[in-house]
Amino acid sequence: MPRGRLVIVSAPSGAGKTSLAKALVASLDDTVLSVSHTTRPRRESEIDGVDYYFVDKAQFQRMVRADAFLEYAMVFQNYYGTSRDEVERQLSRGANVLLDIDWQGARKVREKMHDVYSVFVVTPSMDELEKRLRSRAQDTEAVIAHRMREAAEEMRHYEEYDYLVVNDDFDLALADLRAIVTGRDRERRSTNKELVQMLLQDAESRMTSKHMSF
Is residue 112 a part of any domain in this protein? Predict the structure, then answer.
């Protein structure tokens, strides 16, 4: 059986990478989202082995010492990690595996795995990114400003990725991502490079403006 593709998908918060990844998995039988291990308590609606593998900190740390993770990080006092065995199991059975991780995690995965494809998702403008963050109606002004500053930092690493996908029209962005995951892409390094340079300039000017300072 042909080995599946391992695809990293990263993006600033609000760019829509998780929605794209979930929509792609729902539309392709042979594509899955990697299930992470976490020490975070399980919520009532969550299923162990489906949403996450829920483990205690002692078990997680044993896995770290055994080099069982392709990447891991602590977020709000809880650990999250991508199991090498879990990813290998899916790839070996022919499934394409999506990793929804940030640029730091992507670096770690590239160090440990060969034949990794990586995609960076952006919005068509910083105004659109801010609009999407506000439309979620779940963050304070301070949090939105923080996420916008984080977006500028994350976009500085776009050149580390093989592909750039602009999530302007969701269906078109989904089609672009599907072509990458299924191997129908024509070339790496999308021509969207100029757009990201523009977004970076916009983000940096916002960081020095009054409404971005807290």
Answer: yes
